[in-house]
Design goal:
65% of the residues lie in helices and 0% in strands. The chain is mainly α. It has one domain. Helix 1 runs antiparallel to helix 2.
């Protein structure tokens, strides 16, 4: 006599629409990788925008003090270098995906969040 009946359930993630881990696990993992990388890129871009605005504000508010102006200029240059680095890393990830045939990296896109 078998008193315990097997139960099956599907894991559905609201962030990864129309993806089911049971039907295609590799596609599910690729989607998770894409969402994670996209979120990191978006956070990096937002950080750049905030840093860029603050550096510009510090440049304006330096009031002719060369030391403060130079510090704000360095901050501005570092934020631009950081943004460039983000896009270089994105390009390197796509290249690695193409060379090694990793589907999740090969089809990597920056998808802006929408409701």
């Amino acid at each position: 006599m078998n008193l315990i009946k097997p139960v099956s359930a599907a894991i559905n993630n609201p962030v990864l629409k129309n993806k089911n881990i049971e039907s295609n696990p590799s596609s599910y993992v690729n989607s998770i990788i894409q969402v994670f990388i996209t979120l990191l890129i978006i956070v990096g871009i937002l950080y750049f925008v905030i840093n860029f605005i603050l550096a510009g504000f510090h440049m304006i508010s330096s009031q002719g003090d060369p030391k403060k102006f130079e510090e704000a200029q360095k901050s501005l240059i570092y934020s631009l270098l950081g943004l460039t680095l983000i896009f270089i890393i994105f390009a390197i990830l796509k290249l690695i995906g193409s060379v090694f045939g990793i589907t999740g990296l090969e089809t990597l896109k920056i998808a802006w969040p929408s409701l």
